[in-house]
Specification:
The complex is a heterodimer of chains A (111) and B (110). By secondary structure, chain A is mainly β. Chain A contains no helices and eleven strands. Chain B has no helices and twelve strands. The model of chain B has no long low-confidence stretch (mean pLDDT 95). Classes of the chains: A mainly beta (111), B mainly beta (110).
Chain lengths: 111, 110
């Protein structure tokens, strides 16, 4: 089964609105990562948050982590059409840092 | 910027053919990975390599093999392609804080 499960599966918003997606995971982690995938392309690393951090920002992205609830959220503020993509959370599950990816949230931003 | 380059964006191969998917990274990363991505199944790890000539099976290695003769290159081999191997194949190399992915190869086996 997937370590990370994103919610919702799909999200449709208008430009300028904020988009929030959530990720839940099952086991203890030392970090959680978010990736973006544009249609038909590879994944792009967006941000990593460590287990001792509660919140992290990168540009228009804000990530939170609640280890007591085993959950994380990704907020994209003031969304743009170029933010249309699938977003995945990922958690490492062994000492090599192999990642387990969630099923992703598909975000569509309409002009 | 770190680059992970996959040799082909699209490939069409016939059932039974031997298929080579090539991946090259330019940042001296030790760890490299091959995933396949299918609708409804997400990303699944096929093989992982942590050094030259070192490899480890992932979750779905059946029907695949890999080769890592040089640090920068990690090849995925489909020994005898089958239609159920039609998929998007993603190569990645890892740095301290995450993975860098290639653009992907969409393979169709007919």
């Amino acid at each position: 089964s997937q370590q990370g499960e994103e919610d919702p599966q799909a999200l449709s918003i208008q430009e300028g609105e904020n988009a929030t997606m959530n990720c839940s995971y099952k086991t203890s982690i030392n970090n959680l990562q978010w990736y973006r995938q544009n249609s038909g392309r590879g994944l792009v690393h967006l941000i990593l948050i460590r287990s001792n951090e509660r919140e992290k920002h990168s540009g228009r992205l804000r990530v939170t982590l609640d280890t007591s609830k085993k959950s994380s959220s990704l907020l994209i503020t003031a969304s743009r059409a170029a933010d249309t993509a699938s977003y995945f959370c990922a958690t490492p599950y062994d000492s090599w840092g192999k990642l387990q990816f969630g099923a992703g949230t598909q975000v569509v931003v309409t002009p | 910027d770190v680059k992970v380059t996959q040799s082909s964006r699209y490939l069409v191969k016939r059932t039974g053919e031997k298929v080579f998917l090539e991946c090259v990274q330019d940042m001296d990363h030790e760890n490299m990975f091959w995933y396949r991505q299918d609708p409804g199944l997400g990303l699944r790890l096929i093989y992982f390599s942590y050094d030259v000539k070192m490899k480890e099976k992932g979750d779905i290695p059946e029907g695949y093999s890999v080769s890592r003769e040089k640090k920068e290159r990690f090849s995925l081999i489909l020994e005898s392609a089958s239609t159920n191997q039609t998929s998007m194949y993603l190569c990645a190399s890892s740095f301290k804080d995450g993975y860098t992915f290639g653009s992907g190869t969409r393979l169709t086996v007919v």
